[in-house]
Amino acid sequence: MLDPARLVVSLVAVLLLACPALAQQADAEGYRPLTEWRAYKGAGIPPQWAIDGNTIRHTPGGGDLVSAEEFQNFDLQFDWQVAPGGNSGVMYRVSEDYPAPYQTGPEYQILDNASADGHDDPLQTAAGCYGLYAPAALARPAGEWNTARIVVDGNHVEHWLNGEKVVEYEIGSPDWKSRIAASKFAAWPEYASLPKGHIDLQDHGSAVAYRDLRIKVLP
C-alpha cells in the first residue's frame, strides 16, 4: 500500500516539473523571477544568448528569445543595458503564429539614444512604445544600467523608466487608432490585438543585457 504522504510529495514534484512557474515563489509584493526562456518559434537557448543567474546577455545574432509562459495582464520589471550604437526591445503579448514577433507585440524600445540608427526619431527613443509613442524622459547612456517597468492591464499600458512613468496609452482608443493608421503597423491587423502572449527579448544585431526580470500577474 502506498504511503499517502509520499504520494502527495510525488504529485507535487510532478506538478513542479510540468509547470516550472509553480516552482518560482512570489515575493511579498507578488513578483516572481522570469527565468524560463527559449528561442522564438523554437526550443532551447540560441548560443548568442547567455543566461547567468539573474542576467541575460546577448551578442549579435541568434534570433529573439521568448518567455516559456504567455501572459495577459502583468507588471514586468527589469534592468537593461545596451552597447554603444545598440538597439533591442522588449515586446509583450507576442504570438508565435506569425513570422516575426513585432507583427503582434508592442515594443518597449531599447536603444543607445546617442548614436544608434534611428536615434534622431523621437518615436524610436529608448523606453518609448516603438514607432507610436515617444517617452517623456531619456535613458542613461549606453553602457549604463537603466530600470524599466511595463504594466499591461487590459487595454491600458504603461512604460516606466528609472522610476518615472514615460509612456501611457490605451489600445483601441481614437488616439491609438490614428497612430496605428499612420504607422507601418497598419499592415498587420493582428498587431496589439491579442489578449495574451509571450514576453520577447529582441535580437536587433546588437549587444544588450537584461537582469533581474521579475513579473507579477495581474487579475
Explain how this protein is built.
The model is unreliable at 7-23 (pLDDT under 50). It is built from 2 helices and 13 strands; from the N terminus they run αβββββββββββαββ. With 219 residues, the protein is mainly beta. The protein has helices at residues 4-18, 174-181, and strands at residues 32-33, 37-39, 49-52, 55-58, 65-71, 74-82, 87-94, 107-111, 146-153, 156-161, 164-170, 197-201, 208-217. 11% of the residues lie in helices and 36% in strands.
Strand content: 35-45%
* Class based on secondary structure composition and strand pairing: mainly beta
Please work out how many helical segments DSSP would assign: 2
- Average pLDDT, to the nearest integer? 91
What best-fitting shape do the alpha-carbon axes yield? Answer: globular
Q: What is the correct CATH architecture? A: Sandwich
Helical amount: 10-25%
Distance N terminus to C terminus? Answer: 42 Å
Q: Spell out the CATH superfamily.
A: Exo-inulinase, domain 1
Give the quaternary arrangement of the chains.
single chain
Number of domains: 1
In the CATH scheme, what's the topology name?
Answer: Jelly Rolls
Main beta-sheet strand count, sense and barrel state: 8 strands, antiparallel
Radius of gyration: 18 Å
Low-confidence stretches are 7-23
Just give the CATH class: Mainly Beta
The SSE order reads HEEEEEEEEEEEHEE
Number of strands: 13
